[in-house]
Amino acid sequence: MTTKKLSIKKLILIFCIVIMCIIGIIAFLTAGPQTWQAIRQMQFKYMILALVLGVLTVFLDSMILKILSLAAGTKISFYYCLETILFYLFLSSITPTITGGEPLMIYMLTQKDVPLGKATSIILIRGVMILSIIAMTAPLIIYFHGELIQNALLKNLFRYIAMLLILLMIFLFYAFLNPIKSEEIIHKICSWIERIKILARYGEKLEKRLKVWIDDFSSCLKEFLKYKKKILLGSVILTAVSIGTSYLIAYAILEGLNHHLPVLQIIMIQFVLYFLLYFTPTPGGTGVAEGGCYIMFSSSVPTHLLGIFVILWRFFTIYIWVILGGLLITKTIGLDILDKISTP
Predict the structure, then answer these.
(1) What residue ranges do the domains of the chain occupy?
(2) Quick one: three-class SS letters along 160-187?
(3) What global pTM score does this model have?
């Protein structure tokens, strides 16, 4: 039995509808006379700064992809890496989960004659670097600053996700040291999944994909650690800087709205927020990101500023790049071809 996959056009339509609903709800809950006054008094130089930080983030992400590709023995132009990152931001924002754009990135690399296994490894290492930084930092922040999450539901959700991520990181480390034994564990888990009637048809496919994933990740990471330690370390540093520039966008927006918060507090809140977003089923975390931002900043940002802050934050971090990536991908690849390559 096969399941019908939504077309890219329908996913774009769903994304736009969700965004409009979210903006409408936020405006209804927060907009008032003070909001309009705050907009009139807005310092636009900080909005320009937010845009510059967003551009810098995309630039750094493109540099990381270029460096990893070069380290893997493939020379790709910076413009092509930039194009790939914009395509990724577009597709990952309209498909379920925050990592929905990886198959497209792999496709883009293979178009430059990068072998499929190597392309998969490059994207895996890129994703693992981002996830590792967030996964290691967010729990430490909550341990020392538990007051950042005052909502009981978010606190419980954070605990469950933290446990899941810790298990995932342990398993990745174990798979790196002992890929054969890890494949045996995967076989046992997938065999158990096949006993569940609803999930039975997914067990074999999941096992094959996970085995390929572990083989590629383990072999590529071993090669990087053996021959290209400096490149890998440089990529990790660039990834951390890229995350930092992205998180500073919120600081610039609040300064533009004439509301001052310690920059460290703003960065810590976003580490926790993005930690939660990695396991949200909605496209690119849409809805959950806005709601989570609303909840986590509600204790430190006045209600009349909170709505416009959330909307501007998502605009400079996601919406603007989704629009740019969508326009670019329509002219180059085309939505019909994108439909064929958007399934992992």
Answers:
(1) 8-172+230-341
(2) HHHHHHHHHHHHHHHHHHCHHHHHHHHH
(3) 0.85
